[in-house]
Amino acid sequence: MPGETLLIVDDNPVNTKLASITLKVAGYDVHSAGDAYEALEVLQTLRPALILMDLQMPGMDGLTLTRQLRNDPDQRDVRIIAITSYAMKGDEEKALAAGCDGYIPKPIDTRTFAETIAGYLSTDRASA
Questions:
Q1: Which of 5, 37, 64, 86 is the most exposed place for a label (fewest CB within 10 A)?
Q2: pTM for the full model?
Q3: Does residue 99 belong to any structural domain of this protein?
């Protein structure tokens, strides 16, 4: 749903830029954070409709941040989609168990990425 606010949490600036440009072209309001701690700062003033969460980050990883957000009454209903380039067997299950609403392996497909995000946004989080 173009116009929605999104947050990309990823420590790789190239991945962030590619996802950001793809989503901005589709009409989304895109913000970014380079790690989990920066994301927590951004989330003090930003209420995104969806967070794209890299799983492998230095310091606090994406799974830990997801669990923390799911325990925060102000953030627990935000859709969180895991996105990782280290797609190993079992990673999707770990992401879903941590509280992610979906999983997208990297590299993203720029032809379908915005449509995939729109699909997550159009689904009620409780039924995702």
A1: 86
A2: 0.93
A3: yes
